[in-house]
């Protein structure tokens, strides 16, 4: 009897060990799956600019040309996601900027390593869509501005982009899933009254938008109320974009307007041929306010070559002119060019 009981106990123990023990390879795989993804890039450009300007009517024109080397937005980031319930996934991301061309030494007056936060947020996604909170590119940027803001170094107009409806920090954002090609989105920036001198209303910012995609065509319309803009008399801004992709060709158009301030329009064409990419765009901006009738226009070109999945080089050039900015007699014209390289990991 005792031998039978002992044998049964040994067999049960052996069965328990074989059923519940995890082999080292499986255990290592699960640990790796729980680790965040580390990613980033190193971006460096050589720059050249030749600009002529005149600040007072009748004054002699001044010229300036210069060259240099600069970082072009190098970043280091971490991201992770996991399923918290069937059909429900939690995710988080944080991304820092740093300089690849300036020594970041705190003892020498530098930033001491990683610079400002570019993105940092957490959220949930499922059949209901995606919702996240923190600091992130909003639908104003991704659905409107990014359609023609294609270049590695240059902005298509630049003069007024930061003054439109895109506010990124302290933001709660929600985007629906695609419903027959339609998507809706909203972003709410929480500021409170803060240092608003009038103290009569909050400075919270609201962005709402809609996007529709049908085959190769995508259309989007986004509105930002600009309550967080400290510019006196700042009003809401509208952004519209249209993009069409067909095989190797892509055409994009974007239009942004803020009443009594600025309006811009941009048209972009991109052609991809194997590992090479070529782009051309024209953009114009116009001030629209009391005493402000300035104008800006730019033509930008790009040639980019992917040397591998992780490394590409490019050259970009832009010519442009501006006049009567903010109601003055200021005029400027010139050209710029860059030669850049990016390594992505």
TrEMBL record:
It comes from Alkalimarinus sediminis. Its main location: membrane. The keyword Ion transport applies. Pfam families: Porin_4 (PF13609). Gene3D superfamilies: Porin. It is a multi-pass membrane protein. Residues 1-21 form the signal peptide. This is Porin. GO terms for biological process: monoatomic ion transmembrane transport. One of its GO terms (molecular function) is porin activity. Keywords: Cell outer membrane, Ion transport, Membrane, Porin, Signal, Transmembrane, Transmembrane beta strand, Transport. The keyword Amino-acid biosynthesis does not apply.
């Amino acid at each position: 009897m005792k031998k039978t009981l002992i044998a049964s106990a040994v067999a049960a123990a052996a069965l328990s060990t074989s059923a519940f023990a995890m082999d080292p390879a499986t255990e290592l795989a699960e640990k790796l799956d729980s680790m965040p993804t580390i990613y980033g890039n190193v971006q460096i450009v050589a720059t050249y600019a030749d600009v002529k300007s005149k600040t007072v009517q009748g004054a002699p024109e001044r010229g300036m040309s210069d060259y240099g080397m600069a970082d072009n937005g190098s970043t280091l980031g971490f991201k992770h996601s996991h399923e918290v319930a069937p059909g429900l996934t939690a995710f988080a991301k944080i991304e820092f900027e740093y300089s690849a061309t300036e020594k970041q030494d705190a003892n020498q007056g530098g930033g001491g390593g990683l610079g400002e936060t570019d993105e940092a947020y957490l959220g949930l996604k499922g059949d209901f869509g995606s919702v996240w909170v923190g600091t992130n590119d909003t639908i104003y940027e991704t659905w409107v501005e990014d359609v023609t803001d294609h270049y590695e170094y240059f902005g298509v107009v630049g003069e007024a982009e930061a003054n439109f409806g895109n506010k990124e920090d302290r933001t709660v954002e929600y985007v629906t899933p695609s419903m027959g090609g339609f998507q809706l989105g909203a972003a709410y920036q929480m500021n409170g009254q803060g240092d608003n001198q009038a103290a009569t209303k909050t400075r919270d910012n609201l962005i709402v938008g809609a996007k529709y995609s049908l085959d190769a065509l995508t259309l989007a319309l986004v509105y930002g109320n600009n309550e967080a803009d400290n510019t006196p008399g700042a009003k809401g801004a509208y952004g519209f974009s249209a993009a069409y992709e067909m095989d190797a060709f892509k055409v994009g158009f974007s239009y942004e307007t803020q009443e009594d301030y600025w309006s811009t329009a941009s048209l972009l064409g991109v052609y991809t041929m194997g590992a090479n990419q070529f782009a051309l765009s024209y953009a114009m901006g116009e001030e629209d306010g009391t005493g402000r009738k300035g104008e800006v226009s730019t033509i930008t070109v790009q040639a980019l070559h992917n040397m591998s999945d992780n490394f590409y080089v490019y050259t970009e050039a832009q010519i442009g002119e501006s006049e009567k900015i903010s109601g003055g007699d200021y005029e400027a014209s010139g050209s710029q060019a860059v030669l850049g390289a990016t390594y992505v990991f």
